[in-house]
Amino acid sequence: MSVRLHSQCIGLHKLTLTLVIVLVFLSENHMMSRAIGNDGGQFEGAIWKFTLTSKNTNKKLKGQFRVSNKVLYQKVNKEDPTFTKPIGKNYPKKTKTKIQFTDLRAFTSKGVQKNGIQATVWLKYHRFGHWSGTFIDGKGAHWNIKCVRFQE
């Protein structure tokens, strides 16, 4: 009887260990999918829409980016469901922030894609989820920028 009970306990321990391993594996995969933003819309950080309006020509550009841990990301391409491509950094200071874009992508009103935009941006807080300021691109052109947080 004690041999049979002992083997049943060993079997129970093996089953418990197997369940723990499976749960750890699932948990790690869930955390990984959260980190890369590929889990049905749940990811770290917030998604922002932006509008750029040229101060000289009245041209407009629009786009989106994700901010997480002071790093800015965009989708690899327009059809990509994730925001994993690093495109700049954010340097917040209370109600003001500075952003350095190194590889921003934006779209004209006709949908023409503009790639590789480099810029320095100074934003000021207006109300929850609303910031605006000055965007100076790599060529020295000045733009007005408005950012609105729309997904978190």
Task: Walk me through what this model shows.
This protein is an alpha+beta fold and 152 residues long. It folds into two domains: 36 residues; 106 residues, Lipocalin, CATH 2.40.128. 23% of the residues lie in helices and 50% in strands. The protein has an eight-stranded antiparallel β-barrel. β7 and β8 form a beta hairpin. The longest helix is centred in the first third of the chain and has 35 residues.
Number of strands: 8
Instruction: Please list the strands of the largest sheet in the order they lie side by side.
Output: 1-2-3-4-5-6-7-8
> How many domains make up the coordinates?
2
The CATH first-level class of the largest domain comes to: Mainly Beta
Count the helices. How many? 1
Low-confidence residue ranges = 15-39
Which shape, going by the Cα principal axes? globular
What is the CA-CA span between the terminal residues?
59 Å
CATH topology of the largest domain: Lipocalin
Helices and strands, in N-to-C order?
Answer: HEEEEEEEE
Gross CATH architecture of the largest domain = Beta Barrel
Instruction: Give the C-alpha Rg.
Output: 23 Å
Largest sheet: 8 strands, antiparallel, barrel
Overall average residue pLDDT = 80
Helix fraction bin: 10-25%
Strand content: over 45%
Structural class: alpha+beta
